[in-house]
Design goal:
This protein is an alpha+beta fold and about 425 residues long. The chain contains 10 helices and 26 strands. The structure holds calcium ion. Calcium ion binds next to loops.
Length: about 425
């Protein structure tokens, strides 16, 4: 499959991808919905008005002339599939409808550099899991010792907590160093001030499309039908605030000051060619968490750091989504099994994605082993935790034969704590 729009092999956005986003033209105009194709964004509200999205079930509803993807997400898998099919047809090199209509091309195709990307959805609820065995083992070893690294429940259920949706921000948003209560080991009493142990967490998130009724769990065999698409997530974390506040109910203010996501939502369908088996689960999970088909995906993930005195960024993490122990399907089924209802636009995140080797650890906490092994940067600086001015960029992609299904990037810079 090839588009009449020139897309370089290293681009994240070939015709095989077509991720959805919400954008606003820089020269003015309302937010609306588009898909990324090469260096362009295709404005779906224009196609909809031109009558090119007939037969998708969205005709005349203004579903793409919206500041969020929620109404489209709520239409369900069959409509998403049909829209995607029509968009791939319209962008195909052999299809003249858009290719040979100069007016329509001018109206519907904009350079990505000419638009501002916004949060893709109005996020109702945000849930964060803890689904990487390597991450949970590393953190558990540091905090409780090797013998007690994994809590007894960990291999039986995907551990998670309810996060905060109000502070989910789009890539490019600066983040002020949070202040909070901490209790350093050498102090008798807690202190208050800017976090001295600011960290990142490399995660992937997925948006829920169609939800479920309260009291009606989503069976695991249907769980993936509820996934609209995936984004990159940086779950900024203040480890010193976390260490003091987290017992017995889990992290609170150490996580809720900001969570950054990438702007383009990659449809689950685009990831199908990259479906792989996840790690073998031992002991076997309870029946409600069992699924026969492979339910992980081969997604390369990288993290770059650029300090304020660095001329270019440095790669600090290189890992893969497929290391995750608990699959997205298992996390969705588990989330709803007691009766919790999910809604269109809800965001779920995987938890930090670490792998077996050191460079595959998805947080500074693990990379530097809580400060025991500082990280060396190319300009002679060292890092244990984030410093003011540090910019973190996460990226991810699936490598196809001559093309990439990419997620773009999620980036964010640390600013000094507010006075
Ligand atoms: Ca997290």
């Amino acid at each position: 499959m090839k588009s009449f729009i020139n897309v370089k092999p290293e681009s994240h956005f070939p015709i095989q991808n077509l991720p959805y986003g919400v954008f606003r033209p820089r020269h003015g105009g309302k937010p609306r919905i588009g898909v990324a194709i090469g260096e362009y964004v295709l404005d779906l509200s224009v196609l909809e008005k031109a009558g090119l999205l007939k037969e998708t079930g969205v005709e005349d509803r203004g579903i793409f002339d919206q500041p969020s993807l929620n109404p489209f997400m709520a239409l369900g898998k069959n409509v998403w599939k049909k829209v995607r099919e029509i968009l791939q047809h319209l962008l195909n090199e052999d299809e003249p409808a858009l290719r040979d209509d100069p007016w329509l091309r001018r109206a519907a195709l904009r350079k990505q550099s000419d638009v501002e990307l916004l949060l893709p959805a109005q996020i109702g609820d945000y849930t964060d899991f803890y689904a990487s065995k390597e991450h949970a083992t590393n953190v558990g070893t540091m905090f409780r010792g090797k013998e007690n690294a994994l809590m007894p429940n960990w291999t039986h259920l995907p551990v998670g907590y309810h996060g905060r949706s109000s502070s989910v921000v789009i890539s490019g948003t600066d983040v002020h160093r949070p202040k909070g209560q901490m209790k350093p080991l050498d102090k008798d009493q807690p202190i208050f001030g800017p976090s001295q142990q600011l960290d990142i967490e490399l995660e992937m998130g997925w948006f829920i499309g169609l939800g479920n009724e309260r009291g009606q769990p989503i069976p695991i065999k249907n769980a993936e039908e509820h996934i609209f698409g995936l984004v990159l997530v940086n779950d900024w974390s203040a480890r010193d605030i976390q260490a003091w506040e987290y017992q017995p109910l889990g992290p609170f203010l150490s996580k809720s000051f900001a969570t950054s996501i990438s702007p383009w939502v990659v449809p689950l369908e685009a990831l199908e060619p990259f479906r792989v088996e996840g790690p073998k689960q031992e002991p076997p999970p309870l029946p409600y968490l069992q699924k026969d088909e492979a339910s992980s995906f081969d997604i390369e993930l990288e993290v770059y750091l650029k300090g304020k005195d660095m001329g270019h960024s440095q790669k600090i993490i290189s890992t893969n989504f497929s290391y995750l122990y608990w699959s997205m399907a298992q996390q969705i089924s588990h989330h709803t099994v007691a009766g919790c209802n999910l809604r269109p636009g809800d965001l779920q995140a995987s938890g930090t994605i670490s792998g077996p080797q050191k460079e595959k650890r998805g947080s500074l906490l693990e990379l530097t082993w809580r400060g025991a092994e500082p990280m060396n940067l190319y300009n002679g600086e060292q890092r244990v935790w984030l410093e003011d001015g540090d910019e973190i960029t996460m990226t991810g992609w699936c490598q196809g034969d001559g093309y990439k299904i990419g997620f773009g990037e999620v980036t964010g810079r640390i600013l000094p704590a507010l006075e």
